[in-house]
């Protein structure tokens, strides 16, 4: 199982590449959609890491993917801006996925 990053900036992508995680940069909602479609078609990718700003490009798309697809798992990662509360995002994801409120 591989990880893949969809980021809004090259700094985060470069850092992840240093850790061995490939990815790409998306600045628009259509770019995000194309990236998700392409990555979802790759059976080797099990987890897609998204920065908060990328998730905000098309929240409905991200939400639909989380609820309708079993694979890959979408997970938020902090980026260089430090925006977003990752623990809150994980709690919300668990609540939506299995109905357990943390």
Mean pLDDT, as a whole number? 85
User: Cα-atom Rg, whole angstroms?
Assistant: 13 Å
Helix fraction by DSSP (H/I, runs of at least 4): 40-55%
Tally of helical runs: 5
Compressed to H and E, one letter per element, the order equals EHEHEHHEH
Biggest sheet descriptor: 4 strands, parallel
Number of strands: 4
Query: What amount of the residues lies in strands?
Result: 15-25%
Strand pairing plus helix content: what structural class? alpha/beta
Sheet with the most strands: spatial strand order: 2-1-3-4
Low-confidence stretches: none
Distance between the termini: 28 Å
Cα shape: globular
What would a concise description of this structure say?
The protein is an alpha/beta fold. Helix content is 47%, strand content 22%.
Characterization of this structure:
By secondary structure, the protein is of the alpha/beta class. The chain contains five helices and four strands; from the N terminus they run βαβαβααβα. Strands 2-1-3-4 form a four-stranded parallel beta sheet, sandwiched between helices. β1, α1 and β2 form a beta-alpha-beta unit. The mean pLDDT is about 85.
What is the fold's blueprint, element by element?
Elements: E1 2-7, H1 10-18, E2 22-25, H2 29-40, E3 45-51, H3 52-55, H4 59-68, E4 73-77, H5 86-98
Parallel strand pairs: 1-2, 1-3, 3-4
Pfam families: ATP-synt_F (PF01990)
Protein name: V-type ATP synthase subunit F
Family: Belongs to the V-ATPase F subunit family.
